[in-house]
């Protein structure tokens, strides 16, 4: 996952992504643009899965 793809999950906000992951925003600025740390990628995928599960539970 690229840094840009990760930021899309948080609406493009470094601060919001840091909040979602429970880290400080300077940590994100240290990530490589082409490949984020593997652990963070797993965390972000879990957040996406949780978000999608919540959307399925919402009444139409």
Task: List the keywords.
4 helices, 67% helix, elongated
Q: How would you describe this protein?
A:
Helices cover 67% and strands 0% of the residues. The protein has helices at 3-9, 14-21, 25-29, 38-57. The longest helix is centred in the last third of the chain and has 20 residues, at 38-57. With 60 residues, the chain is mostly helical. The protein is elongated, with a radius of gyration of 12 Å. The chain is built from four helices and no strands.
The average pLDDT is 94
Structural class from helices and strands? mainly alpha
Strand % is under 5%
**Biggest pleated-sheet summary:** none
Straight-line N-to-C gap: 31 Å
General form: elongated
Topology summary:
Layout: H1 3-9, H2 14-21, H3 25-29, H4 38-57
In short:
This protein is mainly α.
